[in-house]
Amino acid sequence: MDVPLYLFACDMNGYYRGGIAGVGIKSCKIYYDNTLIRDFVPVTFFDKIGDKIAPSNCLYDKITQSFFEDATGLNSFNIMDDPAYEDHNPEHNLGCCYANYYQDGTLFNSSTIWFRESDFINGNTWDPYTKLFVDYLQPKYANAGVISNLDALGDVTFNNVKNFIFIINYTITDYRFTVKYWKDNTEDENNLLGEEELLINERNFYSVPTFGDIVDIQKYKPDSYKPTYNYPETRVTLSRILEHAPYDIVYQKVENPEVYTTTVRYYRKHYSTDSTLFTANWLEIGTREVEIDETQFAEGVYIEKFLDLDALKPTSAVEGVEFYADGEPYNWYLKDEMIDTPEKLKAEYQVVYDTVSIPIEVRYYTD
């Protein structure tokens, strides 16, 4: 019959009893007759033996090439604080460092990276860019990451990297181009209404924009004038924007432009006056008619260009406190629909003012 063999404890009918605390072990060999069947050595949690990792402070058997843990199941083995037991095996020496990742100065990720002393010796190279996953964590549209404080690290050694905080920066390159705004033509300098230098980068092209999304072509538009510009009728990309720059936005006079009308209805959230009910609906608070002439339709023009969403926003009697949020189209997706032609203008729009939560302080007293 097989029975358990306990070290520094007793076997009482197959159960662990009478464990002795404070006993140290440097090795243990067990023989069956004259045959060595167990050859134990102590290992610490996370020690690497071949391709195996120690699950706790325990014993490793060289014969079966397996780990034997504390029989109590409490993982109560400790490493003795004695120089005689100091472990100089680089495979057993663990360390960690930290990495903070920034995009244009904004922190977006932090990581803790674990390693062994053996990763730095015997021909092994601990490359910070590889070990910190600098390329893997590169944000979309950003330039390659740079470890900005690598010089402060000094030599890449186990002791230097241990507990070091790496700073990784990713930048986005801005590109500049010039736009001039003219009235009637570009021949007479007196017709120049404005000139500005615009900055763009890859993020401007996350979705496929129109030229009007990149350049505010209505910015200096006189009444009854319609903008024209020199961007070709091709897909708008960063390279094409830069290729065809600089740009001239020329406003041409339109005689008797056709006028279109839309109705805007404004609503605020209204709660029932019945204290037993917690129901709400939209209460109409006003209506406006908005006239838009044909010269106001262009690429990059959205509903906010035509409608004053906060025209009838309810005011609060309490100074500095707002009870209602800014106006939004009832059909929220309309805010992102471009209105570059009269056909896209709807006959009616609904603007709603939702309520906002206001924190209050309540104090309770006795006596």
Taken from the alpha-carbon principal axes, the silhouette is elongated
Sheet/helix structural class:
mainly beta
Question: Into which percentage range does the β-strand content fall?
Answer: 25-35%
Q: Strand order, biggest sheet?
A: 3-4-7-8
Helix count? 6
Average pLDDT over all residues: 86
Q: Strand tally, please? A: 20
Determine Rg (CA atoms, Å).
37 Å
Whole-number tally of structural domains? 4
Helix content: under 10%
Biggest sheet architecture: 4 strands, antiparallel
Segments where pLDDT lies below 50 for 5+ residues? 82-88
Could you give the order of the helices and strands?
EEEEEEEEEEHEHHEEEHEHEEEHEE
Structure description:
It is a single chain. This protein is mainly β and 367 residues long. The protein has four domains: 10-85, no CATH class; 94-170, no CATH class; 175-253, Ubiquitin-like (UB roll), CATH 3.10.20; 259-353, no CATH class. 7% of the residues lie in helices and 34% in strands. It has a four-stranded antiparallel sheet with strand order 3-4-7-8, with no helix packed on it. A four-stranded mixed sheet has the order 10-9-12-11. It has a four-stranded mixed sheet with strand order 14-13-16-15. The N and C termini lie far apart (76 Å). The relative contact order is 0.07.
Summarize the structure.
Helix content is 7%, strand content 34%. By secondary structure, it is mainly β.
For the structure shown, list the relevant keywords.
single chain, 367 residues, mainly beta, Ubiquitin-like (UB roll), four-stranded antiparallel beta sheet, four-stranded mixed beta sheet, 6 helices, elongated
